[in-house]
Amino acid sequence: MAIKDVLLNQIGSDWNSSSPLYQQLANDLRKLILDGKISSGESIPSERILCEKTDASRVTVRKAIDQLIMEGLLFRRQGSGTFISERIEHKGEDLSGFTAEMRNLGVDPSSIWLIKMHAEATTEEADTLKLSTSAQVCRLSRVRLSNEMPMGIENTIIPAQFLPDLDSLTDSLYHALQANNRAPCHGEQKVTASIASPTEAGLLSIKEGGPVLRIERYTFLEDNTPLEYTRSVYRGDKYVFTSKLQLFNQGW
Predict the structure, then answer these.
(1) pLDDT tens by residue, 110-131
(2) How far apart are CA 27 and CA 54, in angstroms?
(3) pTM of the model
(4) Which one, of 82, 74, 157, lies nearest residue 115 by Cα?
(5) Vertex 75, ends 71 and 81: CA angle to 5°?
(6) Cα–Cα distance, 96 to 103 (Å, whole number)
(7) 95 near 88, Cβ under 8 Å?
(8) Strand partners, 141
(9) Which terminus has fewer CB within 10 Å in the chain: N or C?
């Protein structure tokens, strides 16, 4: 479904001469996308329609669209047009893995493994997981993909006793832990905004310095034994965190 006429009328309504036209068109389209007024998978108007609506040249319109494609908000489908890219909404109160989360959203998750090995815990890892410095851990690093598009990089440390057979680990870490009777019971995580390093940008197919979300996650067994420490980097243009808010008192 294409952008409705009422939304199309918002494009170019407050343009001025102080900024390049392609930037103003890109800003209008970006606002419609980020405000949720047009959804993932919807098409945007053709270049011809945008030219007619804005009196901009084809070069200007194409430059604006290319800008949003570079930002990851749009993508071209050969022979079909230009569409709104997929964005993943993660509910902050849910303790779920990437694989389950993507499948619940009806998309196809996969991974590119960078590291999958047993190793001796570093001092920092041992302190974080309450282990002795000679203990063995599983050191896991992978790029997570949704419908073959890179979404994030996950670096995980788990005590080796909880996942002794790494051959059993395919895409879903939590599924492998559950099969070993070591599913996480509760956890906590911290999310901060940041920019992508050159290596991260390359792995995520985004611009160096592009927006990312850095996530630190700790999970525990039912008896509060530390189970997992994960540091992740997710694309800021693709991943959205939401949380439910509840009023506990009215003492304002």
Answers:
(1) 889 999 999 999 999 999 999 9
(2) 13
(3) 0.69
(4) 157
(5) 140
(6) 11
(7) no
(8) 115, 155
(9) C
